[in-house]
Structures are given as structure tokens and as C-alpha cells.
Known about the structure:
It is built from four helices and nine strands. The N and C termini lie close together (10 Å).
Amino acid sequence: MNTPSNLLYTKEHEWIRVEGEEAYVGITDYAQSELGEIVFVDINTEGETLGQNEVFGSVEAVKTVSDLNMPVEGEVLAVNEGINDQPELVNTDPYGEGWMIKIRVAHPEQLDTLLDAEGYQAMIG
Length: 125
């Protein structure tokens, strides 16, 4: 399982890559492998400010639908349009082209509540 060390992780299997006051968010390699073939990503929260752990969208795989949760509070600045046409990017490149949203982090101290790569690896076994 790929768990890049430059990211932080939630217990709900989202990742966040912080770049200054902004950050990219997606689901982990582990999450996409557990979900299976992703066929649709539904995110309608662009422009909204959401709290930590609030749902920012959902991802639909062949056999299930799963909510997507905010790792930290922030404003949703952009949604990755590429995954609308090619939702399989979440499966093939979850940490790159398969990112889901770009946010402005409201409370950087909330990042301290997230797991580092080692902690996430320990959680998923």
C-alpha cells in the first residue's frame, strides 16, 4: 500500500497535502483499493466552508457509495474537474491526478490531530 510520507491522513482514509495556506485532499490508496472500481465522484461543495470531519462529497464504486470527509476545517476552493470525466483516476493515481478538492485551511492547528504516514500504516495494518 502506497502511503507517502509528505501527507497527513484521517482515520476515515482521506489524505491532505498542505501547500502554504492551501491544501489538496483526496482518498488514500488503501481506501480506493477497498472501494474497488470507482465510477462516479459527487462533490458539490465548491465555495463552501466546512468543518473538520464534515462531508464534502461522496464517491461511488461499483458496489457501494462512501462519504468523503474534510480532514480539517476549510473553504473548498476548487474541485478536480478531471475526475468528473475520469473517476478511475482516483484508483490509478489517488495521490496525484486523482486528488478531489483544493481547500484553504482555516485552522492549521487541526493538522496536528491527523495521522502521519507511519501512524496511518499502523492503523490499516
